[in-house]
Structure formats: structure tokens, C-alpha cells
Amino acid sequence: MMDRHTTMSGTPAVAATAGLGEWVSRLDLAAVPAAVVDRLGLVVLDVVGVAAVGARTADQTALRRAWTAPTGPAPLFGTGERAPIDTAAWLNAVAMACLELDEGNKYAKGHPAVHGFPAVLALAAERDSSGDDTAAALLAAYEVAARFGRATGLRAGAHPHGNWGVAGAAAGCARLLGLGPEACAAAVDTGAGMPIAGHFDSATTGNPVRDAWLGAANTSGLAAARMASAGVARNTGTAGLSLGALLGEFDPHELTAGLGTRWDITAGYFKRHASCSFTHPAADAMFELADGRPIAEVQVETHRLGAGLSGVDWDNRLSAMFSTPFVVAAAALDGAVGPQTYAAGRLNDPGLRELARRVTVVAADDLTARLPAERATRVTVRYADGDTRIAEVPNPVGDADHRPFGRAAVTDLLRRWLGDDDLLDRLALFSREFASLPRVGDALRGLAGVPAGPAPGGGCPTGSAVDGAAPDGAAPEKEE
């Protein structure tokens, strides 16, 4: 890290942000490895798909009605509706995150894609951008957000939504606007100067403002790019102040380390459980350990980042998603933790609550020592008959480093959750081919689909194979 004087002066942050701006402005999709472009398409498939799933929940449907926005050029994924781009960026981001199903990245310590993809896609729909420009802008949004996530060490209790990721949204929108190196750097720096200081307990106590932070990140990124386009933005290294001096620590050297050779998008994870990612290894372990016998007690040992998710007093979907005891109990009793897990009545099921109260969550030093490459969890189950079994999972299933998901697995998950084969088929085609389209506007608007009611509840794959492999049966700084 740097000393306080260096942080406050912002000089290293100015230079690093300038380097990022030059890279963003010159990012040429033809020079990007094919595997990276393929992974980008897979991330688009995932996050747009889960946005469509989320948009069909009752609360997101009510939110759209409350917005009373006019029709516009950008799709509201999965709803049959279109909106102005700022509205679409905000509502799609919130829908993308509301079920805790969107792609994430353990090295960024959060979710780079949802911080910027809604803004970039809305802007691309309005401008009817070319496919290669749209893909380059999405890739810039992800890589810049991930680098700011690596560079930022948030203070104890701070939530990562809506702070370091704003710079990624700004970068992607600036690239799509065709801004030059200095203007791209100014957009990134301006985005870094518009962070939200949200508390992690807003999530664990079930306050949906946690989702709103992502809507704000996307609209702030749009605003930053517009300011740069107008010539009223500057690169002063403000990230060292906003993300460093105010919100924690900031290491600008992370912004350019391996730039153009290390692609963080290839190191992310896809989710098969509708819950905070720190709960996933415990759920994966329970699929292996739950064999139909009555369970007397469960101990979940995890790293320090996940040890605080121990609450047993959830009172809505969001707070349950951040309760490892809830997720473990649901995995044991239902064999799945999907959108249907939060259906009416299930949250207050007496049997589920009773089992959750017998789940303890503790931090284990040996597991903490394996961060960040592994987010390991060890689960010990003592059965009512006195038998004890232990399972350890190094990373969530679906992580790039542990039984990674390919296109077939992500498509299978979305098909179960979305219940709309026509929309999913169009999305699958778009995610494979959009980078080669001469224009993306009409194809993007096609992803709004047709008006539909709530999708039928579908479970996560547990007994069936996923990409050829059967699935495994309060912190200083956190992600989801």
C-alpha cells in the first residue's frame, strides 16, 4: 500500500487511471484472445438471463410499475417492455442482482459485470452500436471494474456494491461513446469519485437498498461518461480519495498490473444457488452429506469473510440469502437453493427454521489462510443416530477453479429458472453472435421478450449432471 500523503496526493492514481484510459480507448476486439471473447459471451448469457428471471418476481414487477417511465430504446430484459436508457440501466441492474444469481469474481471481491453491463447494453441499444464496439465496451467495463475491486480494500462493514464498480460502468460507456485516452481516463476517474458507502448489514438484515446501489452504479457510470464526452470531467486520481482515504485503502498499482495480458473475466464464477456466494460451498457440501437421515446438528467452518453470515432470524428473501444456516437447511431438506426456495411460505417453514437453528457457523484460520484463491468451507454433520460425516469444498461449484460451468450448464440453469424457452433461445443466440453483428439495437430489444407473469419456480440441478459432472451432493471485507 501507500502512505497517507501519497494516497491523498493522488499522483499514482492519476498515472494508473491514465494508463487504464489509454487501454480502454484503444481496446480492439480483434486483438483479444478468442477464449476471452467466448467467456464474455457466456457472462452476457448469465447476467442477462438472471436479470430476466429477477424481473419477473413480484417486487421487481411492482418496482417497474412505480417507475412510470415512458417507452424508450432500451430493453427491460424479460418483461416485454422498453425504457429510456437510464431507467433501463437502473432497473436491469436491480433485477440482475435481486436473486443473488449473477456472475461474480473472487479476486475483485464482488460482481464486476452487474456494475456496468446494464449501462453499456442500454447505451448500445440506444446508439445501435456495432457488435465489436459493444463487446469491447462490455469487456472494458468488466476488466476495469475488476481491477478497481482488486485495488480497493474496503473498511470493516462496508458493502462492495456501488463503489469500486462505478469506474467499470464509466469505462464501458466511454468506450462505447468512442472517447479518446484522456477522456476515457477522465470518465473512469469521475466514476471512481461517485461511490456509495453502503453497510454490509443492509444485506444481512434484508434491506433492498442493497440492490439499489447497483442501479446507482450504472447510472453514475453513464453520467461519468457523458461528463467526459462533454469535456467537463478530469482525471485527478480521485479514486485514491474516495475509495482510499474515505472508504478504506486503495492501491493504484493494481489498476494496470498485467493489463492486456491478464483477463479477469476468465477467473469469475457462475452461481447455481440463489444466495450469497459465501454460502455456496456449504450448500454444495450438504448435497453430499444429506442422505435422508435425521440431522442432529451441523457445523460450518469457513473463512473470515463468510463467518459473519450466521443469522437465523431472517424475515425476507434477501436476509435469508445471507444466512448460511438458512441455505444449509434448504439444501438439506429440498436438495436445491433456487428462486423457488423463497416462495411464499417456505421462508417461515417450521421444519426449515428448526434445522437452521442447529447450524453453527465459525471462522477457521486454516481456511482463511487459503484466501483469495480458495473460499473453502468445511461442513461437519452429526446425525441423530450418532454418526458423523465431514465434507470440505475448496470453492463454490461453478467457480473457474472448481468444476467450472460452461455454456451447457449456464443454459440449463436458466432454462429451469426462467421457464421461457423462446426468450432463452434468443438470448443464447445473441450471447454467441452479438460481437459479430453489424448493429445490436434490434437484437437487444428482442431480449425484452413478451409480457409474462412470474416464471415458474425451478430448482437448481442437483441430481442431474452439470457439464458432464454430477454436482457435489461479519467481516472486514466482503463480497457476495
Automatic annotation (TrEMBL):
MmgE/PrpD C-terminal domain ranges (all copies): 273-410
Matching Pfam families: MmgE_PrpD_C, MmgE_PrpD_N
Stretches the record annotates as Disordered: 453-480
Ranges of residues in domain MmgE/PrpD N-terminal: 20-232
Biased composition (Low complexity): 462-474
Family: Belongs to the PrpD family.
Protein known as: MmgE/PrpD family protein
